[in-house]
Design brief:
single chain; mainly alpha; 17 helices
């Protein structure tokens, strides 16, 4: 590997162990490495995850060695994506990203880590920093984006006292969930509800869909715009949450989002199924031509929605919306 990349053996070992983070490379050298990996046959979507991995490294680095200026914290300077969240989960809880399923190499001889899992002390320091950041960001001028993203990430902590702290902090923000339709706190409300669902409390998310999402055009557009960004259909980095207010739904490919929603329905993300269903319904309402333009994808989704309707575990609203979605997707009804 070192020979074909034109570097010494210690460099590759440094990349693998983390002693020489890729983010510390010169920009030109990093671009050259990415191009060379592609020439050597690396899968493009895996090479593309290097960006998310380096973003995750920056977040971990900021937690272990916090910046003196809050505005320079990576959680305050851009809206992170699902790929970045998955890379963080790999480092802090050991769960491999779904994008790498089946690609994790077999064990090798010698002291090679099976995953980029942080040491127990570093994991504890990481979550301690997040909780301190949440508390500091609550104060005036603390940064809404920093607070929202740091609080969401605390829900990944599996420590014995972590769940109660996070649940308490999230429930302290339940006031934002009481607002109807779109508001300046809508993104925080959505993040709070999904984090509570991650912790096993689905009711706030169901209430959010009913009260702050369904039937409000601005909120429905914001939800689809955020999904497009989170799932990679909108590729441009976003410095804040203002992009969600684009009611024209411009800048992203609805077919890509349809495929990503389909993947979410297949894996049945814990606690989020009702949000997936409503969002899929909203996407097909906004773009009713999608099933006819992408029939193979529609056929797969029709089968999956049929299976969900035959099963249980979804709300009455979701069952109604899923019935509408299944009818639109299934060619037999047209």
């Amino acid at each position: 590997m070192a020979e074909v990349l034109g570097v010494d053996l210690g460099t590759v070992q440094g990349w693998e162990s983390g002693r020489r983070p890729l983010a510390h490379m010169k920009a030109g050298a990093l671009v050259g490495l990415r191009r060379r990996l592609a020439v050597l046959g690396a899968e493009p979507n895996v090479v593309g995850l290097l960006d998310a991995a380096m973003d995750a490294d920056r977040i971990v680095g900021a937690a272990l060695d916090p910046p003196e200026v809050t505005e320079l914290h990576p959680l305050a300077s851009w809206v992170h994506t699902r790929d970045t969240a998955h890379m963080l989960a790999w480092a802090i809880v050991g769960t491999p990203p779904p994008a790498l399923t089946g690609r994790i190499p077999p064990p090798r001889r010698g002291p090679v880590a099976a995953a980029p899992l942080l040491a127990a002390g570093d994991r504890a320091a990481f979550f301690t920093h997040l909780r301190e950041t949440v508390e500091a960001a609550r104060r005036p001028g603390g940064g809404a984006l920093l607070h929202r993203q740091a609080l969401y990430l605390t829900s990944y902590d599996r420590g014995p006292d972590a769940a109660s702290w996070t649940a308490s902090a999230l429930h302290a923000r339940r006031g934002v969930l009481a607002r109807r339709g779109w508001s300046e706190h809508w993104a925080e409300a959505r993040s709070t509800a999904t984090a509570l669902a991650r912790l096993g409390d689905p009711q706030p998310l169901l209430d959010f869909i009913e009260r702050s999402l369904a039937g409000d055009d601005t909120a429905e557009a914001a939800n689809l715009n955020y999904w497009a960004y989170w799932l990679g259909a909108l590729g441009d980095p976003q410095a804040d949450d203002l992009f969600m207010r684009d009611r024209e739904l411009s800048g992203w490919d609805p077919a890509v989002l349809l495929r990503r929603f389909g993947q979410g329905l297949v894996i049945r993300a814990p606690g989020y199924l009702d949000l997936y269903v409503h969002s899929l319904w909203a996407l097909l309402t906004a773009h009713p031509w999608l099933p006819q333009a992408y029939r193979p994808m529609a056929a797969v989704l029709a089968e999956r929605t049929g299976q969900l309707l035959d099963g249980g575990g979804i709300s009455e609203r979701s069952r109604r919306e899923l019935t509408d979605v299944h009818y639109v997707l299934d060619d037999r009804y047209h």
